[in-house]
């Protein structure tokens, strides 16, 4: 798979940012605030790589409060924003984005995370990016193709041939399915999931982190 000169769309969590622990902490604090009880660590750890809606549904079922998903998601957002200053970027992430910008290769961020969280991270970490899309931008979040189709529109590369030239970097099966359903190439990033899981979801190939892409752009 050739990626030199191709436009890029990046997921944020698990691809550019090592934020999985921050997200789990935010769910933990939100759970405690909403349900006035603690959530066992093994329950939280099972949620890695899942969408916001799926995690909220699972935690509400665990709390035996199935109709409190909206409240839990809002509480999680508030906790997440409060923790945003602590989010570390993966080695090579800023270097890769700056390289793309220097070479005038278009790129953007397409995430299922809330926009306010992304905005805080982009600002605090001085992340160069032409645009970013978050959960509130979609009617249908990943694994639906809508997020990456919207990303293609933002890149002004929305026809089928143009979309097929876009390279997506994703760390989760539902993100990979979103990208492939949108007709794009997809690199699986093995920060959370194992290679076989990412390939089974449809990744064209895998890398350990985005730092491995530096020689290719």
What's the structural blueprint in terms of helices and strands?
Blueprint: E1 8-10, H1 20-35, H2 41-45, H3 52-62, H4 69-83, H5 93-102, E2 107-110, H6 115-124, E3 132-133, H7 146-154, H8 160-163, E4 167-170, H9 173-181, E5 185-189, H10 195-201, E6 205-207
Parallel strand pairs: 1-2, 1-4, 2-3, 4-5, 5-6
Features:
217 residues; alpha/beta; Rossmann fold; 2 domains; 6-stranded parallel sheet; 10 helices; 6 strands; 44% helix; 10% strand; globular
Describe the structure.
The chain is of the alpha/beta class and 217 residues long. It has two domains: 8-18 and 88-216, Rossmann fold (3-Layer(aba) Sandwich); 20-85. Helix content is 44%, strand content 10%. The protein has helices at residues 20-35, 41-45, 52-62, 69-83, 93-102, 115-124, 146-154, 160-163, 173-181, 195-201, and strands at 8-10, 107-110, 132-133, 167-170, 185-189, 205-207. The protein has a six-stranded parallel β-sheet with strand order 3-2-1-4-5-6, sandwiched between helices. β5 (185-189), α10 (195-201) and β6 (205-207) form a beta-alpha-beta unit. The longest helix has 16 residues, at 20-35. The chain is globular and about 50 Å long. The two termini are 12 Å apart.
Radius of gyration: 17 Å
Oligomer: single chain
Count of domains: 2
Mean pLDDT: 93
CATH class of the largest domain: Alpha Beta
The CATH homologous superfamily of the largest domain is termed HAD superfamily/HAD-like
Contiguous helical run count:
10
